[in-house]
Amino acid sequence: MKRIMFFVVALVACAATVYAQDDAARLKVGSNDVFKGPVGLQLYSLRDVFAQDLEKGFNTAEELGFGYVELAGRYNLEIDEMVAKLKEHHLTPIAGHWDYNLFKNDPESVAKEVKALGLKYAGVAWIPHDGDFDEDDVNAAAEVFNNAGKVLAKYGIGFYYHNHGYEFLPAGDGKTMFDLLVERTDPKYVSFQMDILWTIFPGQDAAALLRKYPDRWLLIHLKDLKKGVEGNNSGGTSVENDVTLGSGQVPYAEVLKAAQEVGVKYYFIEDESPRAVEQIPNSLKFLESVKW
Questions:
Q1: How many domains does the chain have?
Q2: What is the CATH number of the domain that holds 136?
Q3: Percent of the chain residues topping a pLDDT of 90
Q4: Residue 273 to residue 262: CA distance in whole angstroms
Q5: Is the pLDDT assigned to residue 68 strictly greater than 50?
Q6: What residues make up the domain containing 12?
Q7: Do residues 37 and 286 touch, judged by C-beta distance below 8 A?
Q8: Which helix (H) or strand (E) holds 124?
């Protein structure tokens, strides 16, 4: 009996070591000795998979090798169920997106949900507006963001805004509406997530913009734009234009170098194309080989 118990204990210890090594590898996926990451997955990339089969969605995120994730909803799961699913699949949730109007009307409820999910950060990916995004939209959003950031800060959570391209319309004096949004939000309570596709699509220099506001960038969405596609300030383009990282228009070595210099905390692959599951492994290979 003692011998059997010894082998059982040894087997459990061995399994624990394997899981620990696997989890450690997940936290380093998509990085190398130059680009340090850490790299995670925005689960919106797998929205079609989750819509068809919830369990397959979690399995796919795990099988792709990720350790960190950014949430895009709870798939009708209760908070404790969502937490359990993420833990079961070795996925550590870092951040998530919530609707602008929730932050506007009831930021306290968002803060409580975010805290219960165990996230470090919570953000907004779209500011409602009619027609061109203008200074009135900037002022309204800045008020909402500053207040939401203060509420979340009481819970130890950071607030961020994810740019979407329409913010780069001119605002006069060489500035854009995005510049005004940065200026009119309190850096103590409001940070930013750069979506690289939605930065270059309206014609911005992503690396230069990172360095322009070195203390404001918290997170990054890693995306690439198909070569030959012309951009604009609409905030919209076909999902077919999302391509494997390193195969599109983004000068990734330059952008990642700048992001690392300014201290971006986490990088999330967001692939909105219908080929996301096929493209993501190649995007990870690219990130693991990128140098500067």
A1: 1
A2: 3.20.20.150
A3: 91
A4: 29
A5: yes
A6: 2-289
A7: no
A8: strand 121-124
